[in-house]
Design a protein that fits this description.
By secondary structure, the protein is mainly α. It contains 16 helices and no strands. The protein starts with 15 loop residues before the first helix and ends in a 12-residue tail after the last helix.
Length: about 425
């Protein structure tokens, strides 16, 4: 049951606006997920250089970090529905152009990098607008549940998207990019069908973009719960990403067959998907403060236990159990964030949180590989478990987390 009453609330799937928003973002994410594998495969096919393939991926990652904060400002200045439609239209045209270039055998590395960077910019804008729109299409006390359903969507898409992209590329190099274009067309149609407003009326005068950006950063740092998120999210992301990368390196060093290493990643992916599927129920039944603190401590314990299994593919089991808890934790964190942040600042606050949470994770592969080389597998696993424990301590002692109230007792921030 929900935190507010003993009556089971109606399913969010009966909410037409949320269903359209969820489905549109699923299609948008599916296109991005397919291209995440097809793009490097295309680069390798035309250049034969793993380094140049790495340049494509790195350029997209850098662009994503650089445009995160400006995207938050843009999201808060422009109608969210319009921004999502523009983002889908631009990505549709970008992938349609890439498919045509591939068919004509005129694609080059420069074209791939340019299109990938354009797509990344508008992916960030679409994602940011969608985050802010959720609390306007569902009741405030259902936002954590809606966020959990979004987590399930992301987990499912991340599992099925790359294999689909790879299979389509194997049939014809241009096919995954034309399919991506179709996915963005369907997303465009879905968003256009939403009639409910995705934001509150904007009555305040616009300031200079730089001033609005500073305002968003200041608000994030001044609100106790949001400060707590900035302390909790980065070590969690670094711990999970670093642990998974380190596991692959450790098993490879021990001569584990590639097929078995793939099985390990499949088990972890399945754990993430199962966790995302049960996250909505946890978000409904467990108070958010207990959810955050309990999940971080249990995750740290499970990750530490993996140190005993680093030489076996069984190491995937405790890691999968730990990562299974992640979607419910995210649902609590980002659901409460939506409640305490004014609607007019949703984009900027989310951009600050995402930037801080993901920038540290970009070091995960370097840290994981270095630790395995210098200290060995068990120590590496314990280091990442320790990072998870840091997040657990931060959640336990944080006044922002300890002071969380049921959403039914909160007035939406204005």
């Amino acid at each position: 049951m929900s935190e507010t009453t003993g009556v089971k609330p109606p399913s969010l799937w009966r909410n037409k606006a949320f269903t359209l928003l969820w489905s549109s973002q699923a299609l948008s994410d599916l296109g991005s997920s397919m291209s995440s594998l097809a793009m490097p495969l295309l680069t390798l096919a035309i250049t034969g250089s793993p380094i140049q393939a790495g340049v494509v991926g790195t350029s997209a990652a850098v662009v994503r970090l650089v445009c995160q904060l400006p995207a938050g400002v843009v999201t808060d200045r422009i109608d969210r529905k319009r921004l999502m439609l523009v983002a889908d239209a631009v990505r549709l045209c970008a992938y349609l152009s890439l498919g045509i270039l591939v068919l004509a055998d005129r694609v080059s590395l420069a074209w791939i990098v340019a299109i990938n960077m354009i797509v990344t910019v508008f992916h960030v804008a679409h994602e940011n607008a969608q985050f802010g729109a959720v609390r306007n299409v569902v009741p405030l006390d259902r936002v954590p549940e809606a966020t959990a359903r979004n987590e399930a969507r992301g987990a499912a898409v991340s599992l099925i998207g790359p294999p689909i992209g790879g299979a389509l590329f194997g049939l014809a190099r241009a096919l995954p990019f034309f399919t991506d274009a179709v996915s963005y067309l369907l997303s465009f149609i879905g968003v256009s069908l939403i009639r409910e407003p995705m934001q509150q009326e904007r009555s305040e005068p616009r300031e200079h973009p730089a001033k609005e950006l500073i305002e968003g950063v200041k608000f994030t740092l001044s609100e106790p719960f949001l400060r707590a998120v900035l302390l909790i999210a980065p070590p969690i992301n670094l711990a999970f990403n670093g642990m998974i990368f380190a596991m692959v390196v450790i098993l490879q060093q021990r001569g584990t067959p590639p097929a078995l290493i793939g099985t390990v990643e499949t088990i972890i992916g399945a754990g993430l998907l199962f966790g995302a599927l049960i996250a909505p129920r946890l978000a409904q039944r467990v108070p958010m403060r207990r959810l955050i603190i309990g999940i971080t401590w249990l995750g740290a314990a499970l990750m530490a236990s993996a140190a005993l299994l680093t030489g076996s593919i069984l190491v995937a089991i405790p890691v999968a159990l730990a990562i299974m808890l992640g979607p419910a934790c995210n649902a609590a964190l980002f659901g409460y964030q939506a409640a305490v942040t004014p609607d007019r600042m949703q984009g900027r606050v989310m951009s600050v949180i995402i930037l801080v949470a993901t920038s540290l994770a970009s070091l995960s592969a370097l840290l994981g590989g270095s630790l395995v080389h210098l200290a060995g597998g068990p120590v590496t696993v314990l280091v990442f478990a320790g990072l998870m424990a840091v997040a657990a301590v931060a959640a336990t002692i944080s006044q922002g987390v300890r002071g969380m109230k049921p959403l039914s007792e909160l007035q939406p921030a204005t």
